[in-house]
Amino acid sequence: MRLSECLGRRNALIVNGWINVFGALLEYFSKAMASPELLIFGRLVLGAVMGLSTGLVPMYLMEITPTKYRGAAGTLHMVAVAFSDWFSLFIGLPEILGNTQSWPLAFAFPGIPALLLCCILPFCPESPKFTLFTRGDASKAVLDLKRFVDDNEAEYMFEALEREAIMINEGPGTYKQIFTERSLRVPLLISIMVMITQQFTGCSAVFAYSTDMFLNAGIRGQMARFSTLAVGIAYFLFALTAPFLIERAGRRILLIFQLSMCSLSLTLLSFFMWLQNFGGHVWAGYATIGALIFYMCVYGIGCAVPWLITGELFPTKYRASAITVAVSVAWSLSFVVSTCYLPFQQLVGNSLSYIPFIIVSGCGAVFVYWVLPETRGKQAMDIVREIRQRARSLTSGQSPMRIQPIKDTRSCDETTPLLSTLIKWLNQTYSSRGELKTEAELNMVWSMIVSCVAIGAIFGALSTKPLSERLGRRNGLIFNGIFNVIGALLEYLAKPLSSPEILVIGRIILGVNMGLTSGLVPMYLMEITPTKYRGSAGTCHMVAVAFSDWFSMLLALPEVFGGDETWPIAFGFPGIPAFLLCCILPFCPESPKFSLLIKQDRVATLNDIGRLVDVHEGQQMYEDLTREKTNSDTNENISVSYLFTSKELRMPLIICVWVMVAQQFTGAAAIFAYSTNMFLNAGLEPQIARFSTLGISIIYFLFACSSVHLIERKGRRALSLFQLSTVTASLTAMSIFTWAQAYYNINLASYGAIAALLAYMCGYGIGSPIPWMIASEIFPTKYRSSAVTIAISVAWSLVFIISLAYLPFKQWVGVSASYLPFIIVSAISTCFVYFLLPETRNKHTNEIAQDIQFRSDTIRRYSLNILPSVGSSMGISPSNEASEDMRQHLIPRTKSFNSPSTPPYKYSSFAFTPPGETSENFLTKFWGQKR
């Protein structure tokens, strides 16, 4: 957009037009010169033209138009884009220019309107805003205005421009100002968010699959292509209505309507495609077409709004820079979505591939409703003023929906006395140094003290692989214990030395310790344990975490070590068990898997096994390790990046990462943080409320203890499903009860919230250990440390993000609505675990790998619609060689990463099954219902 500031809006468009002509010529001559490189270069040039056009055209049109017609003018650009979309489909037909001989004409056609534009634009006036604000030529600005409107309108528009000029400094704004000036932060956030929601409405995905929808409905070849063209025309016609609707309904209403209806139509589209693929319903194919047409209509109505929002939200001084940022985000996301959609579609299937678009469109509609002001008929300064007012109201806990937190006049001393104690100490420490800190600054220091643990944990998690493979599992834990002792000592000495900085350093070191612990401990415990007890051993880590949670609450009570003088003991206490661990671990055996598979020391392996189990069990364990060593090349140096690039490891890695995401989005931190307030709202005294929160933590610990016994009886998958479904239901109930209590003053609702809290703690405790042990079970030894490193890093990164984002989010939307993200992610994760996570109980990594591959292939094959029964019911001939070749190309033939080969699957008329199983037996186990 620097081009628009140097040359002006009109002249920049002329330059852009000539670049368009140049790119079109390159594309045209690529066939004659037999040069694909020339075609690629021409496409890059045309891409630059498109990027410039999306910024320059709306800016120019809106700056030369009176305020009352500004919206209609701003939509003309996207109307032209909609026209070009269907016209490109038209000339791309084989009957027009899409054949072997004439395709260069189709590629070069955009150069014709660009050439006409270059001939017409020199006779058009420059933008009056550019002439006045950037060039400083008032007389030329008046002349430009009079070429557009009559004298009275020109005088009114010039007065408005002068008022705007008084309120801003001369000269264009810089990119640095866009990001650093506080008054521009919210407008920039709005501009970027509406661009994100526009790109995530899924238009590219729907267009790409539209022809297949007509084919699946029984419409053949040529007619399917013409039907797609007709849908493109419908999109264009509804885009034509935008210039008329945008000045009547307004930008905000149109955008909310578009996003909410896109979310609804994509939901219907996904549902009907699922019915068509899995149920074989013929009518679902026609319903899919109806949902497709509905989507195109609603998308066309609001497609122009995001591209003109930035031009209206920012004053002229900052407009070019802001549009540059917003348009860059839009095209970057367009590239990301177009690159990632096809692999994602192949992974989850057509019907499920729209879920991200559904979620983002729905959330985008809510965001626009809360944050975006109506800009119709308003000057830039009026819009900026309204944005500031809305931002102040939102940050103070209010919103247009009046979703407010529960009013609570209780002090921080009643709910979190340790926080008050620390704030008091920080205030005294800085005062003794002669530094006076405001309450906001003290809260910021406290936030840093809290969040730096998660930062340290991220680094600790990333260090899991090198530490565990160089020092070993046991020695890595000893080294990690020393870290814990050092961090605890620093925290203990922070008060005597009057140094908050030492407290922060100690917290960071303890964070590194926590990150290493969460990776090393489950890995070590599961590698020294026989297969039949592996699950119980893997849960011990989270049982210890649950114990430390309630024990730390006990120590932090004012009656124990949470007082003004004794709080350093509470902070330094973790060093005591860590010191004992460092004394005990040297007498414990090393992991036999590490000794054999990484150190290649058979003698040490036999000694380690002999110290762990009896002779018979030891022989079985050694044979299993030898078999695993034979099936894996442990001489390879497996890097973390290999897990992302290896095709056969992709699905196991996705499972590991997703179960960690699901665990962090169960909202445990938010529930623990607000539990005391729930008891206070139920009428309990502050001290009793704190002890009640302690009791809730003990319940969580007791149910976590029960997982040690349940995990080998019920299995990992069943426990994880129970946890996620229980958490989803209890969070939903908690949200409803807190909402009823806040807005209708229903006293019984507070007791309902406590009951939901109890149900949450029970369900969360039972399944809390599962995610931390999954990576150690589904990956062979040579990949294990890398997989654990990735999973733990994701977990602690999410802990850091959620801990920073939850409190502002809660203040913005209120307590009851703040649980919604956790509810949504937990519900989606329940479905994910049900379909993709295999049962790992008493299975070796080779069996688990085959099960994962089988599940992912099964879902992929269903989603690619290769079932013969469905195909025959829709009248699609299975003998179509082209489509069959495409299906064979899209369905990967992967091998298990732990065995030289994987037995081929058998095919039936319903699905394919693993060797030795019938379709009926498999479906009974896999889908939970008989055929």
From TrEMBL:
GO terms for molecular function: hexose transmembrane transporter activity. It is found in: Membrane. This is Major facilitator superfamily (MFS) profile domain-containing protein. The chain crosses the membrane at residues 12-29, 41-61, 73-93, 105-124, 186-209, 229-246, 253-274, 286-309, 321-342, 354-372, 442-462, 502-525, 537-557, 569-588, 653-676, 688-711, 718-742, 748-766, 787-807, 819-837. Pfam families: Sugar_tr (PF00083). GO terms for cellular component: membrane. Its main location: membrane. It comes from the Eukaryota. Keywords: Membrane, Transmembrane, Transmembrane helix. The lineage of its organism: Eukaryota, Metazoa, Ecdysozoa, Nematoda, Chromadorea. The keyword Transmembrane applies. Residues 1-376, 385-841 form the Major facilitator superfamily (MFS) profile domain.
